[in-house]
Amino acid sequence: MGEEHFHFKGIHKNSDVKEREIVMSLNVLSRNEIFSEESKWRDPGRSEYLAMYSGVFGGVVTDPALMVIPIDDHIVHRGDGIFEACKCVNGYIYNFDAHLSRLQRSAELISMELPFDLSHIKQIVIETVAIAGIKDCTLRIFISRGIGGFNCEPKECYKSNLYVVVIKTATIPPHFYTKGISAVTSRIPPKPPFFAQVKSCNYLPNALVEMEAERNKVDFTIMLDQQGYLAEAATKSVAIVSKQKVLIYPKFDNILRGITILRAVELAKDLIEKGDLKGTSCTDISQEEAYNSSEMLLFSTTPNVLPIVKYDGKRIGAGKPGPIFHQLWELFQKDIRENKKILTPVFKERN
Ligand SMILES: Cc1ncc(COP(=O)(O)O)c(C=O)c1O
């Protein structure tokens, strides 16, 4: 290695180390090098990122290279933050107020002050989606404890921050709906009840649960709660339809209060009226009850509802998506497109 390798580029301008004292292989990059169109760190996935509002910048950016969060924001190094994910379909945000209420509830549970009141947050989100400019997208709202340092204590944070990211909605593989999905029971220890109820940015157990699914060559993994009852999937609520035609879903003491499953319970009233369901029940579900159910379902914002046809290697019901799945799927499609009571328009409505 020649003398040329001891290049000033590698030494911080405030460094008291003399330029020839260490061998450098790293470059100190300029702003222009980082944010140039050809930046090497920009991976192809970033074309899916449409717009980001940052409370730190006080505005919206649409260049993915600028969608950054300061590393001393406690959301980054302590996971001290909360979030919500909602979807916009055909220019309308579905069940937005329910998501905002859950955001507020998460904030209260961890004593986090929202940076703005909910109506202001709502307006910022709507405008960010409008700037993104597409009618079908997913929006993620993050509230962080704030910037201020690298300690753990929230008190060092100056104030909480809002970040909103609008991305293209992920495509659900069509065979998930037509053929159904497989799942196994997770071996990852469940989150303690209090933490499971907060939609916080602490998703390490959930991430490990996702990895388990891959390792077991199934589509999803279902966690059990501390008593051994069915809890939830990494990012989805679970329910069964019993042989007695009751839609049963777990109590929300040990899991996140799923907005989609609660909507499904409302929509299921239609099926009860028609006699296709006997009722709904919010109670513990054992693994045995799940194995013997006539249908098993997962619920979450992006796919609405998915049919589990194999659980822990056992066939569920007829081993194919069942009638309650099909009807709930239809009811969701109608609700998302027609139920003006829970649709928030992003773009000007034309009568
Ligand atoms: C842990 C967990 N449970 C359940 C859900 C389903 O919630 P929702 O129906 O509000 O999407 C999610 C969604 O992200 C989740 O992260």
Notable features of this structure?
D-amino Acid Aminotransferase, Chain A, domain 1, 16 strands, 351 residues, disordered N terminus, D-amino Acid Aminotransferase, Chain A, domain 2, alpha+beta, 7-stranded antiparallel beta sheet, binds pyridoxal-5'-phosphate
Outline, from the CA principal axes? Answer: globular
Count of discrete structural domains = 2
Strands, count: 16
- Strand composition percent: 15-25%
Helix content: 25-40%
User: How many strands, what sense, and barrel or not for the largest sheet?
Assistant: 9 strands, mixed
What's the architecture of the largest domain, going by CATH?
Alpha-Beta Barrel
Mean pLDDT level:
92
Name of the CATH first level of the largest domain: Alpha Beta
Secondary structure class reads: alpha+beta
The CATH topology annotation of the largest domain reads as D-amino Acid Aminotransferase, Chain A, domain 2
Give the low-pLDDT segments.
1-9
Rounded radius of gyration (Å) = 24 Å
Bound ligand species? pyridoxal-5'-phosphate
